[in-house]
Amino acid sequence: MSNGTLEIKAISGHAGPVAGRDTSRDYDVCKLIDVTTCIGCKACEVACLEWNGYPFRETVFDNTYQTMPDLAWNYYNLIRFNEHVAEDGTFSWLMRKDGCMHCADPGCLLACPADGAIVQYANGIVDFNQDNCIGCQYCVTGCPFNIPKFNHETKKVHKCTLCSDRVGAGLEPACIKACPTGCLHFGSKDDMKDLADKRVKQLHEHTSHKSAGVYDPPGVGGTHVIYVLHDIDHPQYYGGLPKDPRVPLLVRIWKGPLKWLGNFAIAAGVIAAATHFVRYGPKKVEEPKKEEVV
Amino acid sequence: MSTAAATHYVSSDAIQRYTFHERVMHWLNALAYTYCLATGLAFYTPHLFWLAVMLGGAPTSRFWHPILGIGFFIAMIWMHVVWRSDMEITETDKRFLSNVEDYATNRDDRVPPQEKYNGGQKLYYWLMYYGTFLLLFSGLFLWFPEYISFSLAWVRHLMIVLHEVAALITIGGFIVHVYMSVFLVPGSTDAMIHGSVSRAWARTHHRLWYIRVTGGDPVGKE
Asked: CATH says A3-247 is which class?
């Protein structure tokens, strides 16, 4: 995989054209997370910290196997843990590796006002560029998955990069490399979809997980991180994975019709004032005659 | 001279319209609003992002925008304490507003005489007053979105739209205000800088106020 995969096809807060717009490489990259084979070892969490150079941060014990309640600005990757009791009384531990989904239609990028703070590469990776981040956290508002996290000291927002630096150099992401069970896979989106479908078929045929399925939500144009879930009908059981994630409607209205209406109104207001001045001119003060009485 | 006139310095050719206190208040308010306007427009559209770059960079602008916003709110409250009684909408204002077409087309002889502020100025005042509350309320959510739980994400979505709508409404008023005070009514800007207007200006634009502060003295009487 060449560095060309990191050609940029979408830029946040950008007024001009984007050179790589509508381009795509031979293939989009994709991470497949098969939660049915995750054992919750958290090797991926450690690998993520190591590659990104963050020290291990304080953990919070909440009577589960989860490292801490939520992702953090320097913790991109968290195994969410849920003790789930099904309707028939059977009990299961649900582990899901949570992190940025790298949406094809990213709400964070749509919401971001800062030129170049969020970019989408031609290979599908959505990356934050902290040099250009202004700390407004509109990306937090735009994200349907609750992923971007704010660093209060530096006023910058961070999230999983899908190891764009490694991928650009032809390597797989750090988490993939660390996974001991084969639960994580990395490759082209097509290949990962194929692999996911095969695994789902296997689950249907050889296990009791008859409602197993692939999570690749169409509401955000599909994602470049996809899951195989035992129960595709209830993604919310897996630490609150949304059933039908979409870029919030109000965010779309805000960045779409409201902008055009606002731009038009401001321009029309200024033009109307100028036109009024040319048509009617300044108001004249009546200079009354000496003897005139009010 | 009437009692009202005693609080206004009246010379033979000039009438004090704004005290030093009022002018400082107005310009602090204007400064805070304009800063928030410029930086806000930078965040509003990529085409105006350069405004934030000129004002010291977008991260700096994002840092100061809410703080100056609080300053704007305080200045507005200060203004409200000082100007509230002057800004109450009266029957005179309603007559003005029903004749606003004549006023807008500079047929001023058909416009009924006005108090210190005409109906249009008062409407602008109330627009900015209530707009400030909307901007502050929604702005607090935009300032600290990380403290709103994800289950209440719809609040963030709503507030971001509310903040922009409120801002656009005040911008509409602001365009009219700047146009009228700088271009349409010569003498207005000077009055807000130096404090006084000519007797003829006062008599033309705010005749009821003119009569009140001069005790009905005819213009030009020595």
From this structure: alpha beta
